[in-house]
Amino acid sequence: MAVMDSVLAEELDRLKELRAKFAAEVEALPAGTIVTKRKRGRPYAYRAYREGKRVRTDYVGPIEGEAAAKAVRLADQRKTLIGELKAIDADIERIQKMLNA
Fold first, then answer.
1. What is the DSSP string of the chain?
2. What is the per-residue pLDDT for 5?
3. CA nearest neighbour of 77 among 33, 36, 17
């Protein structure tokens, strides 16, 4: 059983390091989602995010522009990383239960 415990402990350490790396990447990316608003009949991209209780929006650019494409790419990347963090948290919790049993 000691071998299994050491393997689980190593995996727990690896997951904690990976979680810290992903958390740092998430913090480096801008929060929020990309929304489209029409002004004078043309679509424009805005980044919407929560600041306290208020929802704030920042202008990104025309929806067809490179800035909007980059903002969408970063928002998708952040969403993916948050999903990975949730999966890692579940794995960490499961391994800790195994080690404490």
1. -HHHHHHHHHHHHHHHHHHHHHHHHHHHSPPSEEEEEEETTEEEEEEEEEETTEEEEEEEEETTSHHHHHHHHHHHHHHHHHHHHHHHHHHHHHHHHHHH-
2. 87
3. 33
Give the domain extent around 96: 2-100
Q: Is the pLDDT of residue 1 over 70?
A: no
First to last CA, the chain: 12
* Location of structure tokens 């393997």: 7
If one counts the domains in the chain, the total is: 1
Burial class (CB in 10 A: 0-12, 13-18, 19+), 20: exposed
Q: Are 87 and 39 in contact (CB under 8 A)?
A: no
Cα distance between residue 31 and residue 43, in whole Å: 21
pTM of the model: 0.82
